[in-house]
Design a protein that fits this description.
Elements: H1 7-10, H2 15-31, E1 37-42, H3 44-60, E2 65-69, H4 71-77, E3 86-91, H5 98-106, E4 113-118, H6 124-127, E5 132-134, H7 141-161, H8 166-186, H9 188-197, E6 203-208, H10 213-228, E7 231-236, H11 237-240, E8 253-258, H12 264-277, E9 280-285, H13 299-321
Parallel strand pairs: 1-2, 1-3, 3-4, 4-5, 6-7, 6-8, 8-9
Helix pairs in contact: 2-7, 3-7, 3-10, 4-5, 7-8, 8-13, 9-13, 10-13
Length: 337
């Protein structure tokens, strides 16, 4: 199986997402006077991309309330504030996630505003909403959908809060595909070495804080657990010392994922503890990556995706060592569930 990183294919595949950035930003800005709250609704990796976007909306906006839901829970709760001043953001890479499509139909007839993000316009999600954005056929749909969703919210903050980083955000999002490819290429040798070192392990713990928990979850659950069937558990750094640190010993494989956001000190505390009590630690720090074209003020926002691009190369090498392509599934799309 070929696992070579093909920059010539990956970087251009972001074309539809890059093209959608200005329109998404302008939609957000045009809605600013009508919106008091944002509800993010998605499953899987799209939900975790929303986690980071929610973090920055909470951090920067004094005027916008924000919540994040899984689609099934969203419909079960049936929030009473789905009024005309609420923006609901739906996302599904495939555009076919049953619960997300059901949530789109659930919202029909409600006064709230609805925008969806997906790869394909001919799938049920895009066809069930009044407004959608498409990122096209790319192997990097997780990052591509983040780019366009973040542009929408950047526009909303620019219009609602006069957010001063809007122009820097947009320039940095446009530069992000190249920076992601740089990170993948930079980490290639280390990723191969880490994969060999941990090839026989079946249990991994991933620790991260703030928006980088997006990476801990997507790498740990959506890749290692879903695709390689490894026992892989993401841990919030803020919760690490309230029980999970008792699992640490000299043999426990730990991946520490550290970004540049206000939550960084939480990870530095975890790293200090692991330096004394753990023996098999992989430290991935966004400060180790140049992020060419990314404004210094925007590095914390895109850091989770830079780290994801680097870690994904480790998963590719593990797939070869395990003789299990990352496309392998036991149940997903194969049985009734």
């Amino acid at each position: 199986m070929s696992i070579a990183f093909d920059r010539a294919a990956v970087e251009p595949s972001f074309g539809p997402a890059r093209a959608a950035l200005p329109e998404a930003f302008e939609l957000g800005r045009s809605l600013a006077g009508e919106i008091d709250r944002v509800y993010f609704v998605a499953a899987g990796s799209a939900n975790r991309a929303m986690l980071g976007i929610k973090y920055w909306l909470e951090h920067y906006s004094p005027a916008i309330e924000v919540r994040r839901y899984f689609p099934a829970e969203f419909m079960a709760i049936d929030p009473p504030r789905l009024d005309g001043r609420t923006l609901v953001v739906l996302a599904s890479k495939s555009g076919t996630t049953p619960e997300t499509v059901a949530a789109a139909h659930f919202l029909k007839g409600r006064p709230c505003k609805v925008v969806a993000f997906s790869q394909y316009g001919d799938r049920p999600l895009a066809q069930a909403v009044p407004r959608h954005f498409l990122v096209g056929d790319t192997s990097e749909s997780f990052a591509a959908m983040f780019m366009v969703m973040q542009a929408l919210i950047g526009g909303l903050m620019a219009g609602k809060d006069d957010w001063p980083l809007a122009d820097k955000l947009m320039a940095s999002l446009d530069a992000l595909p190249a920076a992601l490819c740089d990170a993948a290429e930079q980490n290639e040798a280390r990723a191969a070495a880490d994969a060999r070192e941990f090839a026989q392990d079946r249990h991994f713990y991933h620790v991260a804080a703030g928006p980088c928990f997006t990476t801990a979850y997507v790498f740990g659950v959506c890749i290692l657990m879903e695709m390689l069937w490894l026992h892989s558990y993401p841990i919030e750094a803020a919760e690490f010392f309230h029980g999970p640190f008792e699992i640490v010993d000299k043999q426990t494989p730990l991946i520490l994922i550290t970004g540049e956001d206000p939550s960084r000190p939480l990870m530095e505390r975890v790293a200090t503890f692991c330096d004394s009590h753990a023996g098999r630690v992989m430290k991935y720090d966004s400060r180790d990556f140049a992020m060419a074209g990314i404004d210094p003020a925007i590095r914390p926002i895109v850091a989770p995706y830079i780290l994801q691009a680097a870690l994904k190369r480790m998963a590719a090498h593990l797939s070869v060592l395990h003789n299990q392509p990352l496309s392998t599934r036991r149940y997903m799309w194969k049985v009734a569930y």
